[in-house]
Every structure is written in C-alpha cells, then in structure tokens.
Design a protein that fits this description.
single chain, 292 residues, alpha/beta, seven-stranded mixed sheet, five-stranded antiparallel sheet, 12 strands, 24% strand, binds zinc ion
Length: 292
Amino acid sequence: MAIVLAAAGVVAQTQPRKLKVHISVDMEGIAGVVTGEQLGPTGFEYGRFREFMTREAVAAVTAAKAAGATEIIVADAHGNGQNLLIEQFPTDVRIIRSWPRRLGMVAGIDEQVDAAIFIGYHAGTNNTTGVRAHTFSSANLTRVALNGVNVTEGSWNAAIAGHYNVPVVMMSGDDAAIAEVRKAVGNMEAAETKRTLGFHSANTITPQAATELIAQKVRAGLGRLSEFKPLKVSGPVVVEVTFKNYMPAEVLAYLPLFERTDAHSIRFQARDMAEASMIMNFIGEYRPDITP
Ligand SMILES: [Zn+2]
C-alpha cells in the first residue's frame, strides 16, 4: 500500500501542470529602436531590427519554457503584423500574424491562457516623454480613454487579458512605457530596454543585453504568477476616442452607437472589453475600399 501511494505521488509530481502563456510583441520598445528607420520595411535599419525584435521574443519564449510554460502563443503586434522571423521560434510555438483581428494586439488570448507578457511595448499618445509614444495609430488618434482614464496600448491590452482572467506578469519597453502600464496593472516584472530622452531619442542597452534581461524578468514574472491579479474593467465600458481629423468623428456619429463629444472626439459604450476591442478594431480598419 505504501509503495502504491509513493508511486501515485511520483506520478502526480511528474504530471506537467498546464501553463499557457501569451506573448504580444510590438517593436517600438525593442532595444535600440528610436525612429521610423527601424520600424517599417522602408526604413534602412528595419531588416536588422526585425531580427532584434525576433530575438527578444524568442528570449521570452525560451525563458517561459524554462519557467514551466507548456503552451505558448505569440502575437506579432506591430505595423503590418509580419515582422517576426517565424523560422527562429521553437517548433511547438504558434504565431499570430497580420491584421485585422478582433482582439488586435492580444489576438489568441482566451480563458485557457494563464499569463500574458508584452514585449517591445511603448508609451501612450498622451505621454510627454516616451519613445515613439502613441496609442494604436500615431497617424489618426490623439487620445483613447477607458472609463475616463487615458489608456496606452499596454493598459488597454491588459484590460482585454483581464476580461479573460489573464494577468500581465511581465513587459519590456522604455522606462516611460513600463511606468504607465505599472500604474494600471500594479507591480509586474519589467525589462527596461532603454531610457527615453524624447520622442525620437533614447539611451539604450544592447540587443544582447536586452535578451538576457528579458529572459531573467520572464522567469521572475512566471515564478510569482500567483501574486498577479487580472486587470478587471467592470462592464459596460465607456470608450472615448479623439481623432487628429474631423471627418472620422463626424461620420461615425451617424451611427447611434457613437456619440460625438467634441469636434474631434466620439464616445461609445461596450458590453465588455472583448466587444470594446472589436469596435476599436472596426474604427481602425474599416474603409469602403478595403479589399479583397
Ligand atoms: Zn508598434
């Protein structure tokens, strides 16, 4: 009997505990990124920097596995959504690419996910210091607020994760971006890849140093997973959006869903963060000439 119990105990111990991790990867917060030259296919440094972005993401994946992750999903969440060099990831990782997608930068997250990680994130559009600070679209939006509070992509995505009961355990980016997300979610682990000196300047660590720091902070975050609480925004949620231009606010207000609050702004109410995310993605994606 004692032997049987011991054997059962061994089985229980070696049974892997499920730990599904979602990693959303943006690019502005990657070590060394300071201008558009690193951020898109027409920039002279883009080819090298998508390699660095990939290495930071792979460092997070490898560290998550070392910390016990049994399943990992990575979302390419920058620009065209086709930046990560997917052949550099372990074969058991799934990768979400391109747009549009209903949950935007955190597509792939659901109740099965146990922890969320943000890599390469940047500060929000109302931040006076963050490198390349913007919220969703630097070209079109000057403010997005959730229940009256200005959001960053990090705090917005944390609220979507929270809708599915998933806490954010770690993020990487510049010091301004980290401070903003910490204000929303609490004291998660963070890898500071650079100190902001302005919108287009920073004092950065090297790509190699960034991968080492990210690995260390991912292990730390998953190591104290039970301490983190999902960011819960109680529904219905009120979202305010301010556009650079007049026309989006004017035309959206034709629909009863949207209330025009000033020349550049609209407000809408959504049942919960999942619905709010779909409406925001609609606002960003819809044009009558979208193809195919
Ligand atoms: Zn980006």
